Amino acid sequence: MTRKADLLEEADQKPAPKKQKKDGKAITVVSDGESKPDIKTLESKCMSRAETKDIQALAKENNELQATVQMNIAAMKIVSSENKELEDDNLEKSRTIQKLKDEFLLQEDEISSNRAKYKDTKAKLQDIKLKYENNLIALKDAASKQEDTEAELKDTVSQLEKSRRNEQNLQRQIRTLEDKVKGWELEAGQANHASLATVALSTHGLAAQIEDRFNRLENAMVELAKKQQAGFDAITEELSKKDNYWFGQKPCRLSNKYLLRVKDFEKINSTKDKDIAKADVKLAQNFDEIKKHMPDNAKNKVYPVCEDRGSGNK
After folding, report:
1. Selection from 276, 291, 307 nearest residue 181 by Cα
2. 225-254: buried (b, 16+ CB within 10 Å) or exposed (e) per residue?
3. How far apart are alpha carbons 107 and 121 in whole angstroms?
4. Beta-sheet strands, E only, within the chain
5. Strand, helix or coil at 105?
6. Coiled coil: is it a keyword of this entry (predicted)?
7. Contacts of residue 20, Cβ cutoff 8 Å, sequence gap at least 6
8. pLDDT for res 127
9. Percent of the chain surpassing pLDDT 70
């Protein structure tokens, strides 16, 4: 309404334009006095022109706005598409980041587990190293003891060989005594013409001599048996220790030479008592045979050697 009022006021202030006629030759200007248009007509024409201009301006502005809206819509579609791509990209990146986080946590757990295993393995290795060092020391000590034991066994075998020789000598002495007893038996049988006192004294001297020899023989046998038994005990103990003891690659055993010698001495030791018992029986038989040829008063003066050697003469 304000614009219309302004237009009407402007129309009132301006003089009415002169009309010109164009007929191709001259222009006829109509003066103000010739015709004066109606105010209402002018007013309606002005308003119509103003409205037309407004409509055109509004239409142009509307077209521009529509074009701008279309451009904005297109731009918004582009932005929306870009936003969608960005959202998809962000989602993918978020998934990747989460996956990396999960892998990182898993690796952290594995590292912690491996660290614990490493500590446990390190402790076990320390224990193994300590045990190895202790075993090495024990092996060195056992090797040293084995050398000492082998030296002792060699010494024992040497002593047993010496004892064996001594025993052989004693056995020869026993056989010699048996031969002497047989000789004395023959001499006693041939000496029936001798006096009873001479026979008694000879028999008594023979018994005393045999008793002394047997005492020494028995003492030597006892001492030999003790030495042999000590040697056998030492060998048995060392065999029980060393037979199954492991030194590195194979069991440590005594050499076959020592084993054969030990077996020989065991055989000798087992037959020793039998030989002595046989000798005792033989001597007892010889004394019984001698006493048959002696008078009764001389028999009581003879010491029964094989019944109780070592208690002295009666």
Report:
1. 291
2. eebbeebbeebeebbeebeeeeeeeeebeb
3. 20
4. 19-22, 27-30, 246-247, 250-251
5. helix
6. yes
7. 27, 28, 29, 30
8. 92
9. 46
User: What's the token pair of residue 130?
Assistant: 């300590």
- Who contacts 304 (Cβ-Cβ below 8 Å, separation ≥6)? 287
The span from the CA of 283 to the CA of 76, in Å, is 143
* Helices and strands of the chain, counted as H and E runs: 5, 4
Q: Is residue 110 pLDDT above 70, yes or no?
A: yes
Q: Indicate the pTM of the whole model.
A: 0.31
Tokens of 112: 């912690």
Q: Which residue has the tokens 């047989």?
A: 182
How many angstroms separate the CA atoms of 66 and 262, rounded? 127
In angstroms, the CA 171 to CA 271 distance is 12
Tell me the C-alpha distance between 247 and 143, whole Å: 8
> CA end-to-end span of the chain, whole Å?
183
pLDDT tens for each residue of 251-304: 444 445 555 555 565 565 566 566 666 666 666 666 666 666 555 554 554 444
Q: How far apart are CA 300 and CA 25, in angstroms?
A: 216
